[in-house]
Request: fold
Amino acid sequence: MTAATNDRLMTPVELSEYLQIPLGTIYQWKYKRFGPPAHKIGRHLRYKLSEVETWATAQ
Reply:
């Protein structure tokens, strides 16, 4: 992947599909400060693909 593709921002729904886990788990992780780092853009949560991949590799 290129750097531009790797820095793509994903919604919680896209992250849920990417990791193949329930959407509720994504929100629980955010609340419990676990999981990949989340970024607030306005009132919306977004996840950088590169950070998600780094987090998943470390698990």
User: Anything to note?
Assistant: Residues 3-58 form a domain with the Arc Repressor Mutant, subunit A fold (CATH 1.10.10).
